[in-house]
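task queued by scheduler; priority normal; single chain, no ligands, no partner chains; default sampling; output format set to structure tokens
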Amino acid sequence: MIRVLIADDEPMIRAGVRAVLASDPDMEIIAEASDGHEAVELVRRHRPAVAVLDIRMPGLNGIDAAAEIRSSAPSTGVVMLTTFGEDDYILRALGGGATGFLIKSGEPEELITGVRAVADGAAYLSPKVAARVVAHLAATGAGALADRRSAARARVDSLTAREREVLAFLGSGLSNGQIARRLHVVEGTVKAHVSSILARLGVDNRAAAAVVAHEAGIVPAPSQT
């Protein structure tokens, strides 16, 4: 059973997220919060597998709450809910402890997929979020999009062929276990590859590595079936 906490200052959003996640028989909503401070306290008390946080909340926002959760309850994964136009918040959250990023207006199935991925230790970037992050980075003085993609490809080219394969799966939101099954290797081998990938790319977490994978264009398009 995946134990989940939901935090959003809008009751209707909380109700919608709760209804979607409750439709999955493997998920249990164990607590709800209306602000970041309450979310952190409830995570410390209940230790859920995943905390679903609104990126912008009164008092303590989702970014700062994610950082506190990462520090005080590292076993709890954080999924950040965002809306279009919050690109700066997303970039800050990438370094703040969140490993899942979803658009509030996305499909209900994607919310379940993202929570499951983070509960399983993976990073999950909604394709729409990934596209906006890459475009935003290109438009904020960090260099033209073509330059960023070229730089990302150069970073990826420094990886071994197997590490590039693992990174592509990581960017698709797969967990270590899922990647291991795809590659027919043991999970410990994938974990070692991921650690090497983070070091070689110079990033701190799987979500940031996933952004590099998207920038480099090595993430396969989602299946339409």
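post-processing summary
- Residues 130 and 211 are 6 Å apart (CA to CA).
- Residues 187-201 form the longest helix (15 residues).
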